[in-house]
Design a protein that fits this description.
This protein is an alpha+beta fold and 276 residues long. Helices cover 23% and strands 25% of the residues. The protein has one domain: Deoxyribonuclease I, Chain A (4-Layer Sandwich), CATH 3.60.10. Helix 3 runs parallel beside helix 4.
Length: 276
């Protein structure tokens, strides 16, 4: 007799850059209670382990794993099912102490899923005064190269996996409200986009674009210049799926509701559904 999946018939996974989990805690707990994702991947926590609101989130039925850093960065995985942490940093540079990656296997039994919460470096400013690449942009590209190498290894396992988070990359001009203005921004520089394409060309599926081919759909709106009201946004939050996960992709959308709330993050959640 086939064992029952821990997830039921649909697994809902969401990613959200919360821009300080303590500052946005009312919004985060409200969204978790209403949207009820099975797995939530959070970024830009801006706190260490002892500052993370673990009790408030566990009270909503989630197991928690996080990699934190004082004031900056920070990533977490919340799962209604048990989770087993595999990595708390992206391999490839032991000297990199920025908390930007956490990976775990969630679920048990027949159909576990490997997930990673990713906060990819922004990379701005991109240039020094002499026109050469700024170190922040060079760090972003090195980080993306490490992610590509790691993804190659994960694909060899043939696991169902989801690499999700704030990639700080607009994959094409369709994903930015003003391509000319952002042409030399780290989010749109050809080098950033080329590495994102390399990830996809390994055999990964970008879930949102696979199911939503139209442009001008965004996941981030700056706090300045009325960007939210004008819909001057960027699509920089992505879920990349292995072939085994992509075969189960049943839905993907951007949930704009949290961005319109008071004291909102400048990002809004993006979610997928995987069929059992």
């Amino acid at each position: 007799m086939r064992a029952l999946s821990v997830w039921g018939k649909i697994l809902k996974i969401a990613t959200w850059n919360v821009n300080s989990v303590k500052a946005r805690l009312p919004r985060v707990t409200e969204w978790l209670a209403e949207f009820k994702p099975d797995v939530a991947l959070l970024q830009e926590l801006k706190c260490q382990e002892d500052g993370f609101p673990r009790l408030e989130i566990e009270d909503l039925g989630y197991n928690v794993a996080m990699a934190g850093q004082k004031t900056y960065n920070g990533v977490a995985i919340l799962s209604k099912a048990p989770l087993e942490v595999e990595l708390t940093a992206l391999p490839g540079d032991d000297a990199d102490d920025q908390a930007r990656y956490i990976e775990a296997v969630v679920g048990a039994g027949e159909r576990p899923v490997r997930v990673a919460s990713i906060y990819l470096p922004n990379g701005n400013p991109t240039r020094n005064d002499d026109g050469s690449d700024h170190e922040k942009f060079a760090y972003k590209l090195r980080w993306m190269d490490r992610l590509i190498a790691h993804a190659k290894g994960l694909l060899k396992t043939e696991d169902a996996f989801v690499l999700a988070g704030d990639y700080n990359v607009c994959p094409t001009d369709l994903d930015v409200y003003d391509p000319v203005k952002f042409a030399d921004d780290a989010l749109c520089r050809p080098e950033s986009r080329a590495r994102f394409r390399t990830l996809l060309n390994l055999g990964l599926t970008e879930a949102f674009r696979a199911l939503n081919p139209g442009g001008h759909q965004y996941s981030y709106w700056d706090y300045q210049a009325g960007a939210w009201a004008k819909d001057n946004g960027l699509r920089i939050d992505h879920l990349l799926l292995s072939p085994q996960a992509a075969d189960r992709l049943a839905g993907c959308a951007i949930d704009k509701t949290p961005r319109g709330k008071e004291k909102a993050s400048d990002h809004t959640p993006v979610w997928i559904e995987l069929a059992d």
